[in-house]
Phosphopantetheine adenylyltransferase (Dyadobacter luticola), 160 residues
Amino acid sequence: MARVALFPGSFDPFTKGHEDIVLRGLRLFDQVVIGIGNNATKKRYFPLDVMQEMIEKTFKDRGNVKVITYEDLTAHTARELGATFLLRGLRNTTDFEYENGISQVNRYLYEEIETVFLITSPHLAPISSSIIRDLHRYGQGVDDFLPYSLTELNRLNRES
Ligand code: ADP
């Protein structure tokens, strides 16, 4: 049976830190599905459809990476996909505290699911979506932190 992992997150925006987790996850799993969670109560900074397109572009040469958006619970989405693993990244103890609780709940909701945590690569540890949003809000270039072109992202942003 193919080992499918769902990598869930807000990805607002998707960063080089996230890309690293996907690429390392591909050494463990047959397929990695990147799931952009769409929380209706939370307003995004970068539009969902634009971010989906940027992530798809990032992995366009890899047939074993798929990008979806979802509104359901992560555990239910994984079950529907036939994914028996959740992939998450850990940067520090704050991440751990948060992830610990979520992974327990996910296993309560879907017994067969195992969350696999990859420790961040040291050079990518300081990268977080919230810091990138702050930099971008004040006009600071953030291309160094992203695996795709922000120029294109801005163009799509203007059109959407
Ligand atoms: P969420 O809103 O669900 O926390 P994020 O998009 O912020 O979603 O992050 C998705 C996952 O990627 C989380 O497990 C987070 O810890 C991990 N992650 C974020 N940035 C990095 C990084 N620089 N290195 C490793 N993992 C990371």
Notes: The radius of gyration is 15 Å.
